[in-house]
Amino acid sequence: MTRFTGPQMSRRNMLAALGITGAAAASLPLLSACGVGGKASAPNGAGEVSGGFDWRKASGQTINILQTPHPYQLSYQPLLKEFTELTGINVNVDLVPEADYFTKLNTELAGGSGKHDAFMLGAYFIWQYGPPGWIEDLNPWLQNTSATNAEYDFDDIFEGLRTSTRWDFTLGQPLGTGGQWAIPWGFENNVVAYNKRIFDEKGITKLPDRFDDFIQLAVDLTDRSQNRYGIATRGSKSWATIHPGFMTQYTREGAVDYTFNGSELIAEMDSDKAIEFTKKWIEMQHQAGPTSWTTYDYPNATGDLGDGKAMMVFDADSATYPKNKPGASKEAGNLAWYPGPAGPDGNYKTNLWTWSWAMSANSRNKLPAWLFMQWATGKESMNKAVEGGTYADPVRKSVFDTTFKRIAADQYGYLETFETVIGQSKIQFTPQKKFFDTTQNWAVALQDIYGGDDAASRLRSLAKTNTSKVNL
Amino acid sequence: MAITRFKPTRSELLPGQRRLSPGSVTADLGLIIWFVFSLFPIAWMVILALKNAQEQTTTYFQFSPTWSNFATVVSDKGTQMTSVDFKAALLTSLLNCGGAVIVSLVIGIPAAYAAGRWKYKGSSDLMFQMLSFRFAPELMVIVPLFVIYNQIGLFDTKVGMIWVLQLVTMPLVVWILRSYFEDLPEDLEQAALLDGYTRTRAFVMVALPIVRPGIAAAALLAFIFAWNNYVFPLILADSNAGTVTVAITKFLGGGGQAYYNLTAAAAIIAALPPLILALTIQRYLVRGLSFGAVKA
Amino acid sequence: MTTQTPKTTPTQPDRPAAPQARRELPTVPTWRRKLRPYLLSIPALVIVIGILYPFVVGAYYAFLNYAAVNPNPHFVWFDNFKSVLGDQVFWQSVKVTAIFAVAATAVETVLGVGLALLLNRSSIIGKIFEKVLILPLMIAPVIAGVIWKLMFNPQFGILNHVLGLGNTFDWLSSSHALFSVVLVDLWIFTPFVAILVLAGMRSLPKEPFEASEVDGASWFYMFRKLMLPMLWPYILVAVIFRFMDNLKVFDHIYVLTAGGPGVATRTLQIGAFEDSIINLDYSRGSTYMLLLWIIVFITARYLVSVLGKAQRRAAGAES
């Protein structure tokens, strides 16, 4: 794992660089003088910790953490001072808006400044930040008993989450082996939330168990004259359009994104099952989806359910969960959950997302950062956060079984849905380093098909492009 | 030479126009159409800022207004949501943008004067170089700038922000003022020199007052563009030098929740300083310049 | 037309009694006089160099294969350029950028000059509105994008409601998106053009117009033959700034459509953003931006020379 910093410029080559207007020739001496690449990798910090565990081991130090606004972040904000009391460590929080979060994080990690010691991370980003060596492997930390407290109980975290945050960055190798790159903090199952009040009014008692019935229900519920439509899903130009409902149902219907033939990944978005599913999905958007589907992002999709405009949403359960609190939205109190239609063979494979904590490999405060991370993902603080009522889903089975079950008991269908899918809920994508590029291409293809392109040929050209990109 | 200040004796019409002709009524109608289009989104933003969470996307014009969004934005609750003290961010923006504009004026006025008055060899090249800053796509410089700033310790500092905002303010200042300096009648300065003043005093007493509207316009526009700049403060600053424009977007929320009402309230508060500046400077923008470029 | 009378010229602020009046200009050594403009411009030059440096570094990336997945980049000469120039999506983005820039600048200029003309009359309505002309500029393009996206939403947006378009009209569909983003751009930036042109209008000499009026010329004639030539330099400054900015447009379009649907609004800087920031392929992103910069540079060079000609003509028209 090489550590990658930006080009280092000395004054000598600053002056040299001034004479250049982009002409290639003169840049040659710059290349080596610039020190691009080839830096020694920052060593893992776990080995330096010894002497038994003590919460106050790093007392007096300060850490910087990077977060994005989220119900998780909001739930933990009031608890931060408890952490400082417990450990004597000061925490500086920097918040970056969701739309720009990864812009900021990508630049900071690529630039190697190491300013933020710990940051929120989504699982797919491990595939991008891991290979250049920007994040710290947390396995050594977990196994060091002087660094991790005895009650931490890492295995209490749901297995699908623990495996989803481990990879060895080898093409074709599935998730679950290799380094532990992040600690899951909160997660989401992608299931269907619906407006129970309307369903009851219309006398719908049996929820559709197969995809075709689901589409039919969505169409039946659509009444444009009432500004009401059946199903809200994301459609904006982003990888995030593929990841929630689309990927979940895609997998349930038996399609895969890539197959590995021993040496290369082959894109399978143009398999027969995939084409058929994609056609149905897009048609569903036309007939029963939001009018401006191609601009619909995360808050739009869940917002319409809360507003009573969308009758169902196929997206993260944790996003619709807060909307059911009194006063949170117009339809608060009327929402319910169910796993969505099963696959043809009855499976409930589900794609999940987890916000996790990762540590910067260039951090200069690794021990206090690790103390923070284990506190934030520990049983005590998580129980408290869940009590707040907007935190879903907790990553720990113990917290789920006790506190969360109690708090969420009155959310109709929520817990049953969770129990149904949790065994088959994991990251359904094939891990690869070009995830964002190829998955955004997939979203663009969906938008093109929505705009009228022929699905089969568009998906074939997509698969061809992705196959060539993913193996680079 | 007696020099008197011009006072408009009557409202200025376009050459050839008469008051209250059918032309003038249509003209006023045209103005009204534009301003309805122009002000409607702003009015709507104000309305949005007065709505509560339930009503922000479910009502049009009938709703129960509340001031709580404004209160939240500037209070501790807002700080908890965004980890930014909004009031402090306002101050930081003022320092960053005001500083940037002042630096641009201090450096740009002499440069614009030199280029406009004398058109020395290389002046058009330098002027074009300055304009070329605006060509540099921001994203192109952002990664190198991030690395460089971290190396020389300018990351997340006000000085660093003022420096990088020159990319935005300097071209505007120099180019707008160059036009004004080019139009400057030389005789006035000659007259002052003949009266025994040094060149610098002549410049300050004669040239500057004439181009004051130009300076006002340039400074105002530069300030606004610097104030509204998003990419640089986002990447090159965290909490120390973070501007208010970035702080606004932190109110948008995340994880599937959206607080458009808070964002609108924050945007309105953030628009106040440039607005106040614009209203104060308007006198200079609006009042006619001295006329008559007396050209021999 | 020349006048000799010591006409209305600005009042000098109260100045102290003049030192001994001399009757000839003070003599200054030639070398000092020649050096003066350069001395005045040195600070500006320093800033230019300071900004040039990261720019050159950024341009340098385009010749590497520097990406996050490639920790040891090496020189690849023009490979990136070949790859980008051979990419159909790149050319589509060029087309989108060109259409957007030309359309937005043209509309903003025409509307801005028109607005300035109407406001110059200083009618009562004009005076009131002039104070609020600048309001849209107060809203950062990013925020304007957020607000307009909310207004465009067919399900709950105010526009469809007020215009009676119902909840099935999509402003940001693949056929409408480019038009809608131009609309947002002109909403924000037409006041910029209007302010510049208005200030210019107010600085024009009145004699030519008064004389023409006496001669009985029509309003339109005066506008075309007198006002426009004198106004061209100011209009062109506004055009240059708007066109350059529109070629690099990013903020509000990204919020509205992220460059979609498909590639309908994918401008060059959005394409560069996708490469650099989303895919962490800095070299490819830099290549995009270097190409964009070249396009902007050439266009600007051309426009500036036009500006020079216009200024010379305007100077001629005034005399």
Short descriptors:
heterotrimer, A: 472 residues, alpha/beta, D-Maltodextrin-Binding Protein, domain 2, 9-stranded mixed β-sheet, two-stranded antiparallel ribbon, 14% strand, globular, disordered N terminus, C: 319 residues, mainly alpha, MetI-like fold, 2 domains, 13 helices, flat
Question: Can you characterise this structure?
Answer:
With 472 residues, chain A is an alpha/beta fold. Chain A has two domains: 54-188 and 353-426, Periplasmic binding protein-like II (D-Maltodextrin-Binding Protein, domain 2), CATH 3.40.190; 189-352 and 430-470, 3-Layer(aba) Sandwich (D-Maltodextrin-Binding Protein, domain 2), CATH 3.40.190.10. Chain A is built from 20 helices and 13 strands. In chain A, strands 1, 2, 3, 6, 7, 10, 11, 12 and 13 form a nine-stranded mixed beta sheet that branches. Chain A has a two-stranded antiparallel ribbon with strand order 4-5. In chain A, helix 10 (211-221) runs parallel beside helix 12 and helix 16 (379-387) runs parallel beside helix 17 (397-407). The radius of gyration of chain A is 24 Å and the shape is globular. Mean pLDDT of chain A is 89; it is low at 1-40. Chain B is mainly α and 296 residues long. Chain B has a single domain, classed as MetI-like (MetI-like fold, Orthogonal Bundle), CATH 1.10.3720.10. Chain B contains twelve helices and no strands. Chain B has helices at 22-49, 68-74, 76-82, 86-118, 123-133, 138-152, 158-182, 186-194, 199-227, 231-236, 244-250, 260-286. In chain B, helix 5 crosses helix 7 and helix 11 (244-250) runs antiparallel to helix 12 (260-286). Mean pLDDT of chain B is 81; it is low at 1-11 and 286-296. Chain C is mostly helical and 319 residues long. Chain C contains 13 helices and no strands. Chain C has helices at 30-61, 79-85, 88-120, 124-132, 135-138, 141-152, 158-163, 177-202, 207-215, 219-247, 251-257, 268-278, 282-318. In chain C, helix 3 runs antiparallel to helix 10 (219-247), helix 8 packs across helix 10 (219-247) and helix 12 (268-278) packs antiparallel against helix 13. The termini of chain C are close together. Residues 1-12 of chain C have low confidence and may be disordered. At the B-C interface, helix 1, helix 4, helix 5, helix 6 and helix 7 of B face helix 1, helix 3, helix 4, helix 5 and helix 6 of C.
